[in-house]
Amino acid sequence: MDAQTETEVPAGSVSDEPFLGPLDIILLVSLLAGTAWYLLKGKKKESQASQFKSYSIQPTTVNTMTMVENSFIKKLQSSGRRLVVFYGSQTGTAEEFAGRLAKEGIRYQMKGMVADPEECNMEELLMLKDIDKSLAVFCLATYGEGDPTDNCMEFYDWIQNNDLDMTGLNYAVFGLGNKTYEHYNKVGIYVDKRLEELGANRVFELGLGDDDANIEDYFITWKEKFWPSVCDYFGIESTGEDVLMRQYRLLEQPDVSADRIYTGEVARLHSLQTQRPPFDAKNPFLAPIKVNRELHKAGGRSCMHVEFDIEGSKMRYEAGDHLAMYPVNDRDLVERLGRLCNAELDTVFSLINTDTDSSKKHPFPCPTTYRTALTHYLEITALPRTHILKELAEYCGEEKDKEFLRFISSTAPDGKAKYQEWVQDSCRNIVHVLEDIPSCHPPIDHVCELLPRLQPRYYSISSSSKLHPTTVHVTAVLVKYETKTGRLNKGVATTFLAEKHPNDGEPAPRVPIFIRKSQFRLPPKPETPVIMVGPGTGLAPFRGFIQERDHCKQEGKEIGQTTLYFGCRKRSEDYIYEDELEDYSKRGIINLRVAFSRDQEKKVYVTHLLEQDSDLIWSVIGENKGHFYICGDAKNMATDVRNILLKVIRSKGGLSETEAQQYIKKMEAQKRYSADVWS
User: Where does the chain bind FAD (predicted)?
Assistant: First the structure.
């Protein structure tokens, strides 16, 4: 849709007018007719017009990406490159690893480029073999319950559902996953195997990184062996030099007008001032906070119930979906980082990609100020990876500091161990590193280049749109902990949220949000029995599920047995939504099973209750084909619950270990076993 025909409205309100009016339709038909005439008339002039970008409006076909800038093959050919590194990234880590591989390629006579599969015509992979000694590397994260990331979905479906001839394609895959999740690195494993099945040549073995441990270590260990294998395969040699080069050049812009400066927008300039639907990850809705109340009664910890107003946004959600929120970094941390880099934070600047063929012109929206970049665009609380420390070493005035940073960023075993102790175990972010290495004073623009993008934070929605169509509820624990160095580290998003309290007579605080759809759903028939296991804030999506079942009953529908297992430390401290749950229980909406781990001498958890209820569990999942849900901690709780379920299936169903495993896999395939877990 042409930008001139879009209706601009004030922040927080969205026009309810029809998407296209009569005049719009007449203009659109005329435009299409004129375009068709022009294209037919211009057939003979194709060669003259080839220098211009080509856009077309046409029905969707198999190849939907026809724009010149989506041709990675042409970019490789025009710039003399042979290496393309694709990434499937949800949080930015896979994209970062892809960038590092492409950058290092120069050292091995393999000049490279980074590519987003979503922005490329991936059918061109079939033509990559025509470039001599070419190589495609895939850095692919597995997301959710074994799914590809959003930007990799189309590519994944394409290789999965088509019998392609990939003969002659040279490739390697590095997968990013988390061992606490059941479908560990499913995407990387599948793509590596599928490309081989389609005839491609695997240049180096599949690498698998585990984010539950130190994924940086897995990546470095893999690429240490990857590059020598690439050299052997193509008969090339390393230049032997470490590549420390800037990817972006600095342009300070003191004269740029204020209305051209980004102030925190994700993509479109002024998108937070003039809101236009549809709202998504690149165009979040600035939602007013209607309610922000404390759920814990005592105990020193904090858990917030927050309600976002989405009225007029045209956003829709269902119980089980996720709300994504763009937070901002702590003001004090931003100021400290500015001082450590001797920076004037209100300087207006742009970082411009030195690779003119890259589709990514800037690392974040530019022009902006250093203050805005550090507040809205950069992950300053993340633990810095080794490549950042290696580059910071060059700015140390003291040789001992330089050697220390080089040592902990090296691949030597004792260097890796020191990195684990000094950075990972001590939870040092970039500010802490610079405070503890006093002679290190990097320029602020290089810090902005090195740090990863600040990512949205996701929360399981704790409401049902059937009861609350114009508000979205989330349940979030305030993250705050003391590190080994005696510092107090705070969660970016929850600290940001904790400050957002609506006050009578004042404008409501607003937060940029969007809705991410999920597969975590109640069964379509309300009479189907369900079991929900959600200790702590794992209760969140089940609050929405219960609201939905209550709504069905209020409408006179029959609802199946709805059993909730909830656990917390003490009834008097952290029994969240106690009044609601007890009321649902009294009215027969739910069968409530609660474990208070510290209210008695011997600790009791939800897993103990599940072990006691094997007959109930088998009745629901075995005899009545009900659904089983888990939400919460992936590392311990979810694994323990799954093992208890296997035990019940074996004992009550009379099945072997292997048959019980297959039983759960079948439940997963039927969407009868679902997990919404995090580590």
Answer: 457-460, 475-477, 481, 491-494, 678
